[in-house]
Batch of 4 targets.
Target 1
Amino acid sequence: MQIIIILPVKSSHTPMKTLAKTLLVLMSVTVLACQNNGTNNSDIDTAKVTIKTIPGFTGMIDSLPLLTMPFNDDQLKTVQANAFIPSANGHKFQKIQAGVLFNRDTITALVFKCYTDMNKNRYQVFLATFHKNGKTIASEEIGVNAVEENGNEHSNTSMQPVFDGDSLVQLRTQWYVYYTNRESSPKSKSKLKLIKIEKNGNITHIPQETVSFQDFMNRFPTLKLPLALTTAPDNSLLKPVSLLTPYYNFEGYMLADTLQFYHFGKIMLPGKNPMLLYTTGKMEQGEGITEPGYQLVVYSPEGKETDRHMLLGTEAAEAYYTTAENATIDAVGNIHLTETIGEPVYYTVNLSDDLRYIWDLSLKQDSDGKLDQTRNNLEIASRFYDPSILKANLREILAGEEEHEEHYFNGVSWIPFEKPVAIGLHIFKRNNEVLAEVFLGNENMDVTDRFIIYNGLKRTIYAGTMPAQFEDQDDAISAQGEKMDFNGTVILKVAGKVLEVTPQGKFKVK
């Protein structure tokens, strides 16, 4: 598809006024159709962009912002291109933004963001280099956001550039497919490429490493077992993992500001697949964060990843987090650690009042290189289980809610006994008086037991108003969620007492 864009520039004779006339910038874009057949998404096709000589190039550069790092497309300046010459099929860019990546003695690099459909946030981002006379040297597509809808199947292709200085660019591409007619996690895959702006202005692709898996493993020193991981690593003493390696999957970190992974050590045991231990640095991605820690990855003998697990550290997104600590690896490679899963009870209160599921967890490698998980014991903890803290939070939760329902359930989760048991918080409010309790329930949403945390009822009688079922029917789906190998005990501390939850859905005071 061929697109001709008209971009305005400032005249050197009228620096404070916008010219009524505009200068032509010819951008000939050839876009190959992106193959998308459901979950089998092909690699994104790179648009071939040719930008011809730009008249008044120096004046245009002076009118554009100089980009600072880390790159954020909010820095780009909208170019008022009011006259577009469409291609044969009537296509045209709806909005164009631009900025200067660098302006050196002989070479200038520009970044263009061109919207094809602003309502659906579809756009392409181009990097182009020029001689000082405005003649193009090279150009490359470095970003894209495309959404496709085919009945119930929705797919998204996203490529985002991450600049390492002003010459090296990471191209992080992700594909997602999800279905609107059923509940499921999106299927996804990702790819990481690197391009470089050479001194002469040419843009080159840096090829992926071609080392053997054995050579890759040689970058990891052999670890002596047993091993305990109790403190965050000192990554300054370790070698970083190459972003060009084919042996590490960066998929879960494509939105991070930086990719910080380091070689720590390898575990080679008779009859078991190789296990490589990486360390991570602090990485932020939007409202998410990964704290420094250790990550174990299991491989097939050929170098294909078979499983992975965080052994120490924290990964968080918004008010949800997972923390691993106190990991040990014994002489035969069996792993033991404490894993805490945290989630908010109410978004309106201090997140230190979160609900925490503290698991005693064992990992053991099976014959296929998978890490079998055994959850031995569970402690459920929250500052909400302290009457004085709960009372203070109740004032905030119920403030201004004059028509609050009498019975309110929240923080409902499922304990993975053979027959799942629900646990959650129930608040009862009548006549401006409040009672709060932790309750248990079964898969039929029947309340099977309760324990009062705070009782502020003085004139109101609770007997006879206690609900027989918890009402949030959406939580019934959770009972059929991921099955876990769990045969241990479940305890929680409430109002100074230690309660055990039985598989029958009853509280037992210890």
Target 2
Amino acid sequence: MNEPERARRIGKRVRSLRRQRGMSLRQLAGLAGCSVGFVSMVENGKRLLDSSSLIAAFAEALQVSPAEVTGQPHPPADPHASAAHEAIPVLRLTLMGLNPALTTSGRPAAPPEVLAGRVAEANRLYHAAEYGTLTAALPLLLADLHAAAAAERGTGRRRMLRLLANAYHPACTLLLKNLGYTDLAFIAVSRARDVIAELEDPVYSALSGFFQTHVLLSAGSPTQALARATTAINELERNLTTPAAHALLGELHLISASSITLDRKRPGRTRAAEVHDHLGEAANLATRTGETRAWHLNFGPTNVGIHKVSLNTDLGLHTAAVNAGSDVRPQRLDAPGRQAAFHTDLGRSLAHLRGREAEAVAALLQAERIAPQRVHSAALAREIVGYLLDRQLPAHAARNLRGLAHRMGLVL
């Protein structure tokens, strides 16, 4: 699909959503922080919404998720990613507590060590971006963990509750967010919040806030996301008793920075300054913690560097993003999904620098080689591939780009 066609498609969706809300062009423009003329051009297919901050601003103004503005989730051509979408109905019923096929009655409960190994494997699959395998495994894992928690008391129950929290996020919540199922990610993070409430542990409560922030961002509400992250930061700063707590505080500063980049209501210079303040806090914490795997995450100097690229990209500071990327070695993380995110964001910025479009294609192809399911499912990756399809590229780059677009399921 070329750029004019994508612009028309998104424009029709924006107009339809605006009319459903009974909003005028002027009202939408005011809420999204844009001019009336810009909104009119978007709706008429003359301007493409191709930046995450603009998409988030329109989504928040229209009170919908970014997926409804862009048309995500997209059915991918990748058979492994397709398997993830095909397994969603079973996971949906499990999250709703309506899956009779997963009854655990009559089966002995698995030993805690076995369940802990399955939770660790689920999170490994998430970071490896093996979405099809993970989506198929989660329903039974969640059912077994809930059954084991129900059978335990005292210390044993608390252990099961922690395992449940670690299964719901990142493995379940961020998987669903990345696949475009924001509503299901909200259910998953709500289930985790209920589990964590019973623990009465302020650090786990802050962890719950971190993942709630992710879902609020995915739903197109950066203001609420930042407010939730700020509450979690304030709570955690009173309970910094372990290295893992410091790592979580660093993650909260990074997600706070991401929330600010997507808040179009803030002036550009203010956004950039606040983003870099949070980056600075995260960098200081990373110096203290080093590379970590606390909470099944990847906080440390490398992840802070990856965020410098993504945040500058989302701020439209493409030269700064590319320069920041030169100092990052994403392969230091045993997390193909994060490595692929780095190369995707680098490609997004390179695509907007004149004469570097072929480098952008190379970066996107590198991301695909590392974690194809993540790249094929990512809305921003799909958007930038569509954008590049309309650019003048060297023959070899154009050919490689068309191949990538085909594997993503994009119409050429």
Target 3
Amino acid sequence: MSYTIDLLLQVKTRFNLSSDYQLAKKLGVSSARVSNWMKGKNNLDWDTAFQVADLLEINDQNVVYGLLKDKYENPRFISALSDRSPA
């Protein structure tokens, strides 16, 4: 499962949202956008990612590292991130 999907599921759980439609309303985005995230077609944009971080009270740095791994598949890039990722 991608970090994007994991974050979205955490928001749904934290706020007792039973549908992607409710999640879309909570985040102020379209249902189609949430659908694309949940299907793995797209990853969260940075503004929405930081909104989710605020909702979940997650450190911004952890969100950035998690999403970078979703957004980039280059093994060398991922290795460089892993060497510097926060504890």
Target 4
Amino acid sequence: MQARIAGLSLSLLLLATAGAASAQSSAPAPFTVERVLGEMRTAGIAVSVPADPPAGAIKASEDVEYLRRGAEVLRLDIYRPSAAGPRPAVLILHGGGWESGTRQMERGLAKALAARGFIAIPVSYRLGASGRFPGAVHDVKAAVRWVRANAKRFDIDPDFIAIAGGSAGGHLAALVGASNGVASLEDGAAFDAKASAVQAMVDIDGAASFPDAALIAQEQKRQGATSRFLGGNYVQRRETWFAASPLTYVSPASAPSLFFATNGKSPILPGRVEMAARLQALGLAAEVQDLPAGTPHPFWLLEPWFTPLVGEIATFLDARYKATKP
């Protein structure tokens, strides 16, 4: 993957830094594929929106309601191979600093994974004040429970449900993957550890921990998306900074995990190397794939990064799925 994208570093580094600075402001611009595409093209970078799979390769069920919270209706989309299942599933969570973005941004990734044999499910979750921790993670775990409960309806193998996400969605995916069996992050009427458990996790450039010196310092100077999601900066909400960190929950019950890391100066995304190391220490499969210097933070949305990424994700999920079978 690195060999195909190593030549764009300087202009991409400038773009990544500028985009991250916008994301840290008090009034971030909405996170959309169109915005990312426009910014990259303005910077002179040759990018394109990924092509959909051939007609007839997949089946779609879109805008399916999975949860109501008061007046707020949460929906998901389901893309599956045309051939009958049961098949492994993967929920996909969009980015946007826990404040913007939509599941529709991840339909391209879902369709591509469906064409490779997975049932791929972009999921909406609450954003902004209503999604403030632990709201968004409650929604995502509810989505996992809904998918497992409806597995037969959609040809899903209920014994293998994975989760993936980019940026803020990557953080939520890592949190769900790390916290299998943790009752304190559930809001269902009756806790069932198996119902919301995931069997693999993919974090695409999302944080795995918050109490990091650089992030603490940044949020002390000016509260950004992290402090808004957590309800305050480190001094104001220290316990929440730990409670919302995937790293806090790593245990033998955690899911095997794959991390993709751009490693730019901004946004600050701590914890991935340490989380992978802790998972490995417990005998769980875990890997951090470092992208070439200068790769922009929202790289997964566009070509030339999209197709290699889909291949890496599919290979990882397929290996984990086969490992669960006799």
